[in-house]
Amino acid sequence: MWKKILVTGGAGFIGSNLVHEIQRMFPECDLIVIDDFSSGSFKNMLASHCDVIAEDLYSFQWEYYFSKNEIPLVFHLASLTDTTVVDERRQMQNNVEAFRKLLRFFSGTPTRIIYASSAAVYGKASGRNRIQDQPHPANPYGFSKLQMEHLAAAYSKENPQARITGLRYFNVYGPREAHKGKSSSMILQIAKQIKEGKAPRLFSFGEQKRDFVYVADVVKATILTAIKDCPVAVLNVGSGCAKSFNDVIQILNQILKTEAKAEYFPCPYPFYQVHTEADLELTQYHLGYIPEYSLERGIEAYFKSGWLF
Ligand SMILES: NC(=O)c1ccc[n+]([C@@H]2O[C@H](COP(=O)([O-])OP(=O)(O)OC[C@H]3O[C@@H](n4cnc5c(N)ncnc54)[C@H](O)[C@@H]3O)[C@@H](O)[C@H]2O)c1
């Protein structure tokens, strides 16, 4: 289908799962990964066989590595992903300026570009998040993702022949995320605390809801975006169903056969989202994407994968 595919951020959590699925689905295709290993890990790539370019995209010399029309499909996932980094220059340079360089290189080509945006662009909004809602990023990370969407919109205008789509991933969890440490999913963080016999620590009173989405569903939606070649600029990718942190503890207790109880403490952040939930109407319409994993099924699959512990 595609002779060459480029995945940036392929040593990271979602990127490495994407790499493995691409190799399973399209074994004939040449796969190239660009990752500077600032947060990703070789451990995620042990079962993959692709060319890995270990470079920082902010200073990347595109012309040195590639000719203009060489790559028909790009998945751009590389990003500073620690959402608590408040160094605005770092967030903007790493996420926005690196993306600008990428777009400049592919400008004028028909290359299909799919890039990772984030539910963080909704920021202060609470409840069901729809693409047509006014974005309200609450931190530099969310702001940088929104700026990427603006760049993509301008690129699309200048390159009407090209297709570019941003995917607003919600709270992704699953295999190959352990390298993220304190930025890993709450599923992993809570599971670890339970496993160590500690009371999982939650902001009072654990009722905040998130759209937790299993990485296999995220990978499916990401590949579907390429296969369907849909003309849409931005889509939500989540489970479409919000669950509370207390729900997570309850499901983990069932799966791990434990009786852990949360220890609540006051939230230190002046702003903390109460509820996120992906509205999937457009995603379903354009991609035919239907999430396969409920939170229960996803955590069970994660546990069985051997990557949770
Ligand atoms: N995991 C989530 O819940 C979630 C939610 C919303 C959006 N996203 C987005 O999805 C994408 C993948 O996230 P992830 O969870 O896999 O994070 P991750 O940190 O595991 O992966 C990011 C990868 O990008 C690489 N990288 C970072 N800056 C780079 C640079 N300048 N040049 C080259 N490589 C660089 C890192 O080394 C890492 O391997 C990111 O764009 C992130 O913003 C993730």
TrEMBL record:
Pfam short name (any one): Epimerase
Domain NAD-dependent epimerase/dehydratase residues, every copy: 5-227
Record has Mitochondrion as a keyword: no
EC number, as in UniProt: 5.1.3.20
Superkingdom in the source lineage: Bacteria
Family: Belongs to the NAD(P)-dependent epimerase/dehydratase family.
Protein name in the entry: ADP-L-glycero-D-manno-heptose 6-epimerase
